[in-house]
Design a protein that fits this description.
Order of helices and strands: HEEHEHHEHEE
CATH superfamily: Periplasmic binding protein-like II
Helix content: 25-40%
Number of helices: 5
Largest sheet: 6 strands, mixed
CATH architecture: 3-Layer(aba) Sandwich
Strand order of the largest sheet: 2-6-1-5-3-4
CATH topology: D-Maltodextrin-Binding Protein, domain 2
Structural class: alpha/beta
Length: 156
Amino acid sequence: MYPRRLLFVLILVASCVSLAAARDLALVANKSNTVNAMTVPDLARFCKGEVNRWPDGKPVTFVMRAPSVPEMRIVLEKIYGMSESEVTGLIVTANHGRGNHPAIIIATSDEDLINRVASLPGAIGLVDVYSINSSVAVIKIAGKGPFEPGYLLHGN
């Protein structure tokens, strides 16, 4: 009886841990940005630092949490299609020679990410949907917002 109960508790704990890491993310932008929707391929290009400027000439900066953070797993899988170490290497490569205006910035928290996007014209970032505030604008991905069915970055 005891091993069965222990197994049940372990399964319950494991499922709670995986659900805690599976958060819904939203693409947010600096309020001066005029883009309100983005395709998945375009988002991948921005996330990889392949786009330097917006059509209006503003420099692009992508702000994200560290690839090692559990909630970034969905981004590594669905946007980058790379492992954590590959994305870390990509960030170094994308920022090489761009000391005054990095292509990709790593934020230490969701609050830090929101503050950086809000303060950098041309910045976009991926953040937990429950961290969004009025200082940033939400951008639709593939025509869908964060709470719509079929949204790309739905964590569960």
